[in-house]
Amino acid sequence: MMELPPEVQATLLDRRVVFLRGRLDEATANATIAQLLLVGRLADGKPVELYVDSPGGALGAALSVYDVLRSLSAPVATTCLGTAGGAAVLILAAGALGRRFALPHARIHLADDPVDLAGGRPPSVADAAEQVSQLRTRWIAALAGHTAHSAEHIGRDLAAGRWLSAAEARDYGLVDGIIPGAPAGRPGRF
């Protein structure tokens, strides 16, 4: 994951902009959570923007970011630039209704991601299987809550590794709209 120069990072945070880039792991989740909490406090009810470009990663890390995102008092607009895959799709879909977007060439990959069982002593095989099943069930149920699809339908699409264009992601209910490209010679939204 590329680090932004400190002055760029500070300017973005002042403008309530957070990026989730790269593979989702505990470190990426912690950095994203810290930034969301910071801009959430600074937002004073104004929208927060979260840009997602992640192939996915650890499901537990994604659920942590999801919980924080959903707990902020400020509305969070999510935008997919590049790719949102696996567990990162839930974070994209978790934006405030009407504020979930994709750029025209964004790709959304519905795919199973590994379930990380963090903690001290390794659980028994039976306990591990039960924990994995519970996390996966919560993930799929949360994703279903942001779309018009059943958990069973989403589970099938995740198992199939279905790829969606920005328009297909909109039709699926993962995003609300597509941010159009800027006309030639005119600056874009950013």
Question: What do you see in this structure?
Answer:
The protein is α/β, with parallel strands linked by helices and 190 residues long. It is built from seven helices and seven strands; from the N terminus they run αβαβαβαββααβαβ. The longest helix is centred in the C-terminal third of the chain and has 21 residues, at 125-145. The two termini are 21 Å apart. The model is unreliable at 185-190 (pLDDT under 50).
Architecture blueprint of SSEs:
Blueprint: H1 6-14, E1 17-21, H2 26-43, E2 48-54, H3 59-71, E3 76-85, H4 88-93, E4 100-102, E5 107-109, H5 125-145, H6 151-160, E6 163-165, H7 166-172, E7 177-178
Parallel strand pairs: 1-2, 2-3, 3-4, 3-5, 4-7
Antiparallel strand pairs: 5-6
Helix pairs in contact: 2-3, 5-6
Feature tags:
190 residues, alpha/beta, 2-enoyl-CoA Hydratase, Chain A, domain 1, 7-stranded mixed beta sheet, 7 helices, 7 strands, 17% strand, disordered C terminus
Distance between the termini: 21 Å
Give the ordered list of helices and strands: HEHEHEHEEHHEHE
**SS content category:** alpha/beta
Strand content: 15-25%
| Biggest sheet details | 7 strands, mixed
Number of domains: 1
CATH names the topology as 2-enoyl-CoA Hydratase, Chain A, domain 1
Q: Could you state the oligomeric state of the chains shown?
A: single chain
Rg, nearest Å: 17 Å
What's the CATH C level?
Alpha Beta
Q: Enumerate the spans where pLDDT stays under 50 for 5 or more consecutive residues.
A: 185-190
Mean pLDDT: 88
Please count the beta strands (DSSP E, at least 2 residues each): 7
Quickly give the CATH architecture.
Alpha-Beta Complex
Helix content: 40-55%
CATH homologous superfamily annotation: 2-enoyl-CoA Hydratase, Chain A, domain 1
The coarse overall form would be globular
